[in-house]
Write a structure and sequence with these properties.
Elements: H1 13-32, H2 37-63
Helix pairs in contact: 1-2
């Protein structure tokens, strides 16, 4: 779609729930101790996983791969 950085992405409910759990756990740990290294590692991991999820869609947009008919 013109003007979009990434097209729509379908995410399974279990995958989305796991992301929410991961983020909520990291937020809870950071509230308890702002210097908590494990929480920061969890957040970094969540970001890496989401980037991997959208990486193929960015290739399609940048490369303007034709859509199936």
């Amino acid at each position: 779609m013109p003007g979009r950085a990434c097209p729509g992405v379908h995410v399974q409910g279990d995958t989305f729930a796991a992301l929410l759990t991961q983020l909520a756990d990291a937020a809870r740990l950071l509230r308890q101790d702002p210097d908590h290294r494990e929480a920061l590692d969890e957040l970094d991991h969540a970001v890496r996983e989401r980037r991997q999820l959208i990486a193929p869609t960015r290739t399609v947009v940048v490369g303007q791969t034709p859509r199936p008919a």
